[in-house]
Amino acid sequence: MFRGIADSAPDAIFLVGRDCTVLVANTEAHRVFGYKVGALVGTPLERLIPGAVRRVDAVFREASRRRMDESLNLTASRKDGSTFPVEISLGPFDRRGSSAALIVVRDVTERRTLEAALIRTEMELRHFQKVEAIGALAGGVAHDFNNLLSVILSYSGLLLGALGPDHPLQPDVREIQKAGERAGELTRQLLAFSRRQIVKPIMLDVDHSLEGMERMLRRLLDADCELSIFCGAEGGALLAVPAQIEQIVMNLIVNARDAMPHGGEVTIRTSNAKLGLPGRENQYVKLEITDTGVGMDQGTRERIFEPYFTTKAPGEGTGLGLSTVHRIVRQMAGHITVRSEPGRGTTFTMFFPTAGAAPAGGRAVPQPVSTLAGSETVLLVEDDDAVRQIVRAILERSGYLVLSAQNGGEAFLTCERHEHPIDVLLTDVVMPRMNGFELWARLAPMRPEMKVLFMSGYSETAVLERTGEVSVGFFQKPVTPATLLAKVREVLGN
Fold it and tell me: In this predicted model, what pLDDT tens digit does every residue of 73-100 receive, in sequence order?
């Protein structure tokens, strides 16, 4: 009867004598430990479950105990030498007048796997919650920063128009404008991170992007570091987000600088390349960044793309730079490799699939502001004083009559008091008390002929989700004179 019960049990069951060898083992014990039925009898317990012997000795010393003890977590060994986690319970057993120890062994491999998966899931959930909180913060920061950039870019644009083409301050103002444009790309990255914007790739000339970054890259390097850029990817363009290319290059340049504490050389090269089987090659743009720094050993090279792995001192690096580079390259369907040896520098090589011919001149030429003038009436609603002032100045200098309001309540009163037609409502989306959507809904019945143009530091996707229409006008901050005037003319229909 005992054998029948034991052989039907789902756990391994042993009877062990005072010499700690197996007297009886059920069918499950033979299966779990990898032995043929009957082959476990006489096997030392220490060979099967190392560390269990002293607990068996304790069972024999406590002759008066009649209950199984609490489960113990140990590691068991199969016949082939492999190990697995087990829980064991021991208790005394009277076998025909002689003492024995009854051991129940449960294989907990699956449970441990599930527990580990649960722990990973909990950690991922906590990480997701942190990312969501950081994302919300990043979205708010990006929105406010776009207002500041609107002022910087708009005033620099007006200043460029006022200065003659040969004025000595022209280059300085253009550098301010370029820096503002790059900052605008970074805010778009923040909005994408916060899931408040879908980043749209564009046709990008890598050589042109590097030329625009050169001055900034030189400032990232120490004074005793020399930078050389050789552009040779003629005619090839990538379908990419400009800020992501900048992020790749900047991260690698910063790493190169840190690898050359006593100075050195950094070289950036671009070229066209073909990868694939003969006759089936695909066109790629090759981007190579080389430094003459301390280099890396094999162990470091194998881990550099792991998140949070860093060789820098505490507080000097997050370990996210190269993992971010790797993620962006893979998102662009590209490839990245690294060559490095201790004392012989490092070379990162990236291949990006081309998406056609590079756009002429590297970027679109904006329409001259002088061709975008008008005489219509604009109701401007913006809660940020600096943004409201510069937008009003841009519109009035181009001939528009501007009625400005700080919030929805003021706009509603202005709309009631103004006796003449209002051609377009130009309103920010995010405002206290009454947002742009609510304001438009209240003013539309009063002024059915009035068009609407939303502006926001967030994306067009968010506007369409709220309005449910694709016909409303929208432009994303930061504001520039050309963009603002072009969108106003577009909404007005001429």
Answer: 999 999 999 999 999 999 888 777 788 8
Contact 189, 182 (CB under 8 A): no
C-beta neighbour count of 146 within 10 angstroms: 26
Q: pTM here?
A: 0.47
| 312 in Cβ contact with 360 (< 8 Å) | no
Residue (of 189, 181, 194) closest to 135 by Cα position: 194
Distance CA 382, CA 396 (A): 16
Longest CA–CA span in the chain (Å) reads: 113
**Band (470; pLDDT cuts 50, 70, 90):** very low
Distance, in Å, from the CA atom of 393 to the CA atom of 403, rounded to the nearest integer, reads: 12
Reported as type and span, the H/E element at residue 15 is strand 12-16
Q: Which residues contact 280 (CB under 8 A, 6 or more apart)?
A: none
- Which strand (E) or helix (H) includes residue 38? none
Task: State the number of CA atoms in the 13 A half-sphere of 20 facing the CB.
Answer: 18
Say whether pLDDT at 494 is over 80.
no
* pLDDT recorded at residue 361: 47
The string of DSSP codes covering 255-316 is: HHHHT-TT-EEEEEEEEEEEESSTT--EEEEEEEEEE-S----HHHHTTTTSTT---SPTTS
